[in-house]
């Protein structure tokens, strides 16, 4: 099993958010989690990425034979877990290019792989940016600073394509995107999909799933998964909403 | 020992103590000390100050054995080594340097309007033992680097300098304070900018923990002149940077920037007082601090806009990152505006490092310490990028790397 979440319960500031959540993801699979506002979808994404604001009450998460909770935030990233943020953080003064270069090399270091030099990295970055329709000038700017909503999401996908993660979690990547931007972003994700990596896509709407075809769709309500199945669930939700769950 | 006894005991070693007018003036200053209750709450010059160290001190001064060097190494470029606050006289067709003792002190002190309420300036006037005047002659464009050296332990330097830029001249001035001994320097810089002149003043402060540095500067800008002050304080000892500025004629500008990097129990006190006294003048202030451990800082800022000073632009900004729960930064920017056609603003943001930004960077594989360091660097990135002197930029970067290497 690639990612195995067993009976996970989590709280923040005395409020229980995840309540005995179970989810298994195998290598090469695309899973989608849909759920109403406040159901705990983003909490799940943040807990998996290692955000320290949450208290783990119960449960276990295994990722690539590691106990995920034994790894700190950066170790999880270096092991191949990637979170595309719902609200990417603006960091004025931190230039995109050296930041991403340092990020990829920290991963290579952990994997005992040869670090990538400046020139090769510049070439890689340029080609990936061009695939995503990102202007080269944007790479001279500070991380997410002054970006439009669409640019931020595109930049998240650029980082994902550079870091080439084993498990990518996309937290409402479709929110705030117009149809053209959505297509660019989802094309980027589809290009990255191989039999060796997995995706966990968190979304409210079926629209995103028209572009990225999930193998499994889960419905999350009140901190746990209440129904799992195929794409037909997404269509069901689109038609009837979350009320019946 | 009280101030009066201290003064009387050392009087013969203090400059101008034979001058009757100055003697009378000093007696008034002694009275201020004797009648003052040193109310820390209402006197900004006393905040975070260990009074015993500064008021009750052992006076000691050594005349430098070797006269200071002035080296005209490149055209329009001068290197000065100021030893215990003194440097030798020099004159060419572009600049003139005069020892304070060779100057008429009455003339020298006439610009000093900041005494009385600032005890450190009063001490400077009372115990004056060193200083010099640098004059940039009309229409010259000059670069000067001054290394300020203190030779021995336990010295008390009371130094008064005067920088004058004549009409149409410009001066790029770099001052370095890197002293490792256990001493105290109390320096007053009086800066006069004549019409259409320009002074860009960099101060790099990097003293050891037992060296206390008190710098007070007073700039006065005439028509179309501009004074820029950029302070980079990496000192491990106490540093006080106070600046008083007067924009006395139209279209003059003052741009003040201070960045301080504090750790351990260190303290940095900063104060600015900018007076807009004419139309169409601009002032801009940016003070940023990074504070770890139990370090403390203050920033008091006052921008006064006189009723005649229409079309004033005055901006104040202070920002601080607290890397520890025990570090503190007290900021109080104030505007007093008596004209109606002005653009002024003030702002202050102080807090711990942005945890969301740390999480974001770590989620890409960067360690917590690397993320913290990159965020500290980014916090002052704009100010560092604005340094247009390559040599200065390298010096500051090296000192920043050293500071960051100690961030836990």
Please provide a written account of the structure.
The complex is a heterodimer of chains A (245) and B (408). Chain A is an alpha/beta fold. Chain A has 8 helices and 12 strands. In chain A, α5 (149-163) packs parallel to α6 (179-192). Chain A is globular, with a radius of gyration of 18 Å. The model of chain A has no long low-confidence stretch (mean pLDDT 92). Chain B has 408 residues and is α/β, with parallel strands linked by helices. Chain B folds into 2 domains: 3-249, no CATH class; 355-408, no CATH class. In chain B, 20% of the residues lie in helices and 41% in strands. Chain B has helices spanning 3-10, 20-35, 51-55, 105-109, 119-126, 355-362, 368-379, 381-385, 390-405; strands at residues 70-74, 77-83, 90-91, 95-99, 132-136, 141-149, 156-165, 170-177, 184-193, 198-205, 212-221, 226-233, 239-247, 253-262, 267-276, 282-291, 296-305, 312-322, 328-337, 342-352. Chain B has a 10-stranded mixed sheet with strand order 1-2-6-8-10-12-14-16-18-20, with helices on one face. Chain B has a 10-stranded mixed sheet with strand order 3-4-5-7-9-11-13-15-17-19, with helices on one face.
**Could you report the average pLDDT of chain A, rounded to the nearest whole number?**
92
Helix amount of chain A: 25-40%
Oligomer: heterodimer
> Mind telling me the CATH superfamily name of chain A?
P-loop containing nucleotide triphosphate hydrolases
Number of strands of chain A: 12
Summarize the helices and strands and which ones pair or pack.
The complex is a heterodimer of chains A (245) and B (408).
Chain A: E1 3-12, E2 15-25, E3 30-34, H1 41-49, E4 55-63, E5 66-67, H2 73-78, E6 81-84, E7 91-95, H3 96-110, H4 118-131, E8 142-143, H5 149-163, E9 167-171, H6 179-192, E10 198-203, H7 207-211, E11 216-221, E12 224-229, H8 231-240
Helix pairs in contact in A: 5-6
Chain B: H1 3-10, H2 20-35, H3 51-55, E1 70-74, E2 77-83, E3 90-91, E4 95-99, H4 105-109, H5 119-126, E5 132-136, E6 141-149, E7 156-165, E8 170-177, E9 184-193, E10 198-205, E11 212-221, E12 226-233, E13 239-247, E14 253-262, E15 267-276, E16 282-291, E17 296-305, E18 312-322, E19 328-337, E20 342-352, H6 355-362, H7 368-379, H8 381-385, H9 390-405
Helix pairs in contact in B: 2-5, 6-7
